[in-house]
């Protein structure tokens, strides 16, 4: 009979490592069963807490982490019921993204994932931001959904990883642009997560002119929507969300002293659309 999550949480780090050595697979399988549990006390206060503590204490072996990746990239986890709105399935997707982020960040220094595993996670992360329709942050009575934000964190971790190639920047920027047209205005600092994606690309050496061209296309989309559909609800939300993003982007670039030409373009669009 596998250990219960609460039992493992109550153990010392030495005891945890011992039980993991004895039968890590059944323990991890049990944790995976609860990864998207709708009860916050089970999902976050027990299951997620245990996962993070195991990661921080280096209690999970390379084999354990590779096993988790093999499961979390399956359709029943990261893409579970992708496209659903206001359903509990968001917790399965969001927490899968969070767990994968921790593993990718760990792998950045240890490099135990194969190139194929990294590329699969990266591809899933890029398309996740495009496909995710549930934009809720905090869900009363159930805790944080935060799928878009956790998806953005995963993408940042993938960009910061040594295996990332700048030629993969275009689909990232397209996916980010899609986030501005979710028919929602994010209210839980998601725009800071989006800015982190751009900053990560800049630190990897993306051509500043590519970012300027992308930003111009972002506002061209707004202009086109206004000309075709007027001040529709979708346009107004997209405009608000885009302006939230570019204002955060401007200050991030200014304080970090990055891409001065892009800073000027960002300020131009803020002035124009405010």
Characterization of this structure:
With about 270 residues, the protein is mainly α. It has 12 helices and 2 strands. The protein has a two-stranded antiparallel ribbon. A hairpin with a 3-residue loop joins strand 1 and strand 2 (about 145).
CA gyration radius, whole angstroms = 20 Å
User: How many distinct helices?
Assistant: 12
Which geometry do the CA atoms define? globular
Structural class based on helices, strands and sheet pairing: mainly alpha
Distance separating the two termini: 61 Å
Oligomer: single chain
Mean pLDDT: 96
User: Strand arrangement, largest sheet?
Assistant: 1-2
Largest sheet: 2 strands, antiparallel
Name the poorly predicted regions.
none
Supply the key terms.
274 residues; mainly alpha; 12 helices; globular
